[in-house]
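In the design runs reported in the main text, the only information available to the sequence generator was the tokenized backbone. The following block is the verbatim input for one such run; it is reproduced so that readers can re-run the procedure and compare outputs position by position.
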């Protein structure tokens, strides 16, 4: 393939196109972050509150629902893919870019319990095709798919700050290799995780060294048998709960499609009620239950003692419900809320005998994001990079494999309907013919 001139041209163009796409993705993320801080932190303080008041989400999310509903109903591309359907690498045209940007900019900073990764993938793929059109590059079906995936990878790498995550994520999302990819990859991933677990255990138990890539960085406490036993219990349980949140999002999507604008506003208002109930019952900021949870996850990891058991239970319940509603109605990605829910579950279960905070959060995040994405390799890489150590890699791999198997065996819920389709599945009787 490398000897073919058209492929080499596409490879060079993909490298060149990564520059403008990454710049646009960077400033798009900066804009979302600044708007989020302005709306949820600066404005409440300017108005005299220490934090956003309990009713703040009730004022913002219905507006988000109205704008997103209008975008979905009126603009080309429907504002991008429905988050409850997972991440998608294709299907977004140049004409859909304004709707994708508007839906994300209106929904995410106003409190949608979603992340920016799906709009970024759509933005990157659409921009790549746009720039290809500007230079009048020949666009066949194969080159369009290649350039779209390259642009999406450049944009998503700007979010995760790592090119490996972007490349692997897009490879899994695009389905390169088809179903056989997972058939070969999952056993290899599981056996490598078990092998790493055995290898790590014997190194600690015997004190012998065989050579490694360790350069002397500080290590967390070594794994033990209790960690392995807990991953067999916690990972399937977390995957089970997150899977049903995704199924709830599919039901919400079927509800929205019948009356797009009205029902999108209703779902967004329902998410706002969940966020408000969290703030009222805990006395904490509603921003913790709203938004993607990326910033709150860092606060939780650094100061878990600042969260009571009641606060952790409340945020799991209310943010989980808001997550399901947003998955089926607004526009965004499922990654960061799933990471937060898994991390919060780990923090809640960390005091269990023989577990601990780092292994618990590693298991929870790996199981949760795998259940949300159904992309086990990408989930493992993402969680390992977030944790910043190699000691828990074996637990992350085992948790991801268990979560993937559990979610694949569970009922998948209703399929997401097309917007012209009636969600009830009923068909109209043909009108009687006139004689």
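Verbatim output:
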């Amino acid at each position: 393939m490398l000897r073919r001139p058209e492929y080499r041209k596409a490879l060079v163009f993909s490298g060149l196109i990564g520059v403008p796409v990454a710049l646009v993705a960077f400033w798009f993320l900066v804009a979302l972050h600044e708007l989020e801080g302005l709306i949820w932190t600066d404005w409440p303080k300017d108005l005299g509150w220490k934090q956003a008041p309990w009713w703040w989400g009730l004022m913002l999310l219905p507006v988000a629902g109205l704008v997103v509903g209008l975008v979905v109903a009126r603009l080309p591309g429907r504002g991008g893919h429905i988050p409850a359907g997972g991440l998608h690498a294709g299907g977004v045209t140049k004409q859909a870019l304004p709707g994708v940007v508007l839906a994300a900019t209106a929904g995410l900073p106003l409190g949608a319990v979603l992340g920016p990764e799906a709009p970024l993938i759509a933005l990157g793929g659409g921009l790549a095709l746009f720039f290809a059109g500007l230079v009048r590059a020949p666009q066949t079906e194969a080159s369009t798919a290649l350039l779209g995936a390259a642009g999406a990878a450049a944009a998503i790498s700007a979010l995760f700050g790592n090119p490996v995550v972007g490349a692997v994520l897009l490879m899994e999302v695009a389905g390169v290799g088809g179903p056989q990819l997972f058939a070969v990859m999952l056993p290899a991933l599981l056996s490598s995780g078990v092998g790493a677990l055995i290898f790590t255990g014997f190194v600690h138990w015997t004190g012998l060294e065989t050579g490694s890539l360790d350069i002397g960085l500080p290590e967390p406490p070594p794994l033990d048998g209790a960690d392995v036993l807990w991953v067999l219990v916690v990972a399937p349980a977390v995957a089970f709960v997150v899977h049903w949140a995704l199924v709830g999002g599919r039901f919400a999507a079927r509800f929205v499609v019948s009356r797009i604008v009205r029902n999108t506003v209703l779902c967004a208002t329902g998410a706002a009620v969940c966020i408000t109930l969290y703030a009222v019952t805990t006395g904490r900021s509603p921003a913790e239950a709203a938004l993607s949870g990326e910033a709150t996850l860092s606060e939780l990891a650094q100061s878990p003692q600042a969260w009571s058991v009641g606060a952790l239970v409340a945020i799991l319940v209310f943010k989980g419900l808001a997550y399901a509603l947003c998955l089926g109605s607004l526009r965004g990605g499922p990654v960061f809320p799933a990471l937060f829910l898994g991390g919060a579950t780990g923090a809640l279960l960390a005091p269990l005998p023989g577990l601990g905070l780092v292994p618990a959060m590693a298991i929870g995040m790996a199981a949760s994001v795998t259940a949300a994405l159904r992309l086990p390799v990408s989930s493992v890489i993402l969680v390992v990079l977030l944790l910043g150590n190699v000691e828990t890699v074996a637990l992350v791999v085992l948790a991801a494999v268990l979560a993937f198997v559990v979610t694949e065996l569970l009922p998948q819920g209703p399929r997401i309907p097309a917007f012209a389709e009636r969600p009830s599945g009923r068909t109209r009787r043909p009108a009687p013919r006139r004689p």
